[in-house]
Specification:
The chain is mostly helical and 168 residues long. It is built from 8 helices and no strands.
Length: 168
């Protein structure tokens, strides 16, 4: 996912699009991504865009052009986000910029879980059918029938003597 984001950094990325690409629901994707990387997904995307934009400041291009290229709508919005992330405005950063894309600190909190061990490969097996035993109750919600039938079912179930159970 991190490589995908880096290769599509100039495109319009959304949680839904990234989750679909990863094969998760947006909710689950956000939770897993934050646990693994330590940033929310869109915070990570914004920070990567800022990192790529910072590397382009050395090129001498106009700051507003770089900002728009990396998905920021205004120069002031870009400058505010840039200052918050790098601690200085883009104009000051430009004086000392290099063409290297700054790296983000990721996986620091979860690194201990990702080292060593074995890689498990999933294997699909087809098993024979099995027989299960249990009780069944069919009821409907009409006139509150289910609110009477379900408690009665459990009352009857809990008082059945063991000798009365029949195996199929």
């Amino acid at each position: 996912m991190l490589r995908y984001i880096d290769t599509h950094i100039r495109e319009k990325l959304s949680v839904e699009k990234l989750a679909a690409w990863a094969g998760f629901s947006p909710y689950h994707f956000c939770r897993v991504f934050q646990w693994e990387v330590g940033y929310s997904i869109m915070e990570y995307v914004r920070n990567r865009r800022l990192a790529y934009a910072a590397s382009e400041l050395a090129s001498g291009r106009r700051i507003v052009d770089i900002a728009v290229e990396y998905g920021f709508e205004t120069h002031s919005g870009f400058s505010k986000a840039f200052r918050r992330y790098f601690g200085c405005p883009p104009e000051v950063y430009r004086m000392h910029a290099s063409f290297d894309v700054p790296k983000l600190p990721i996986l620091e909190k979860n690194k201990r879980y990702l080292t060593g061990g074995i890689v498990m490969e999933p294997k699909m097996l087809k098993k024979e059918a099995v027989r299960l035993a249990g009780f069944a109750l069919k009821t409907v919600t009409r006139d509150g029938e289910n609110k009477r039938a379900i408690p009665q079912f459990w009352t009857d179930y809990l008082v059945i003597p063991y000798e009365d159970y029949k195996c199929i």
